[in-house]
Amino acid sequence: MRFIIKKLLSTIATLLIVSLCVFAAFSVIPGDPARAMLGTDASEAAVERLREEMGLNAPFISRYGKWIAGFVRGDLGESYKYSKPVSELLLDKVPVTLTMTLFAFLMILILSIPLSIISARHKDGIIDKIIVIITQINMAIPPFFSGFIITLILGLGLRFFVPGGYVSYSEDSRAFLYYMIFPALAIAIPKSAQTVKLMRGSLINESGKDYVRTSLSRGATENYVFYGHILKNSMIPSITFLGMVLSDIVAGSIVIEQVFGIPGFGRILLTAIEGRDYPVVEAIIMFLAIIVIVINFITDILYRVIDPRID
Fold this sequence. Notes:
This protein is an all-alpha fold. The chain contains 14 helices and no strands. The longest helix is centred in the middle third of the chain and has 35 residues, at 173-207. The chain starts with a helix and ends in a 5-residue tail after the last helix.
């Protein structure tokens, strides 16, 4: 329990530091939201009045305190461009990005764990060499390029889906889930290759330890030793990496959304940055940061569950 409390306090402190950095970054970068809203032809007096109305002339600490207090309450502020609550703008984007992220992560687990086990158990064999070659090739392919290949082959070639034919979950949940398979696959292909490489190495390294030879010499079967000891003991570095992969999927999903024409966080983030709609940008970045930090927190807890000696 003390371990969990310590990690929870560390997580909260990290979130506060991230929130301060995010707010400070958009307070010092060039560009004036008031000027962006009124246009370049507006007078200085009009721009100054709008800045005062928007609270942009208040001291930094005062603005940050008001913003973080509102964020904790669920009040993400009001969009400069759309003149509506940011929470209302982002509410229907959350299921889109999260669905794609979860699909991609499940695909990574489904692909990488069996392939890692097969490769490690057939070390230096034909199957192992084929898996190693395929993973090396896929590791070199960035997700956005995987997206283009999937669009070209599965979309335009085999017509498994219509590129850009996104269907909202509110209109047709089945069509929505089916369409999300393809961007998730684009994310999963290179990440699965990286995961296979790490898990294979971890399994092979664990298989060469003394306790494995001792267990086998005492009559334990290879399957019992592998699945009962080797696989479990090799999971700690794998969980570390999978936590990083999941965090990277969340952050990298923005690019894939653009490739497949998905109206998730990516599209609205780019529009908000272009229009200097800082409340929207800050909310999205904080939301992504919260997901990443919470994932790291869960990963730390899983460490402790697998190996209670970790502190």
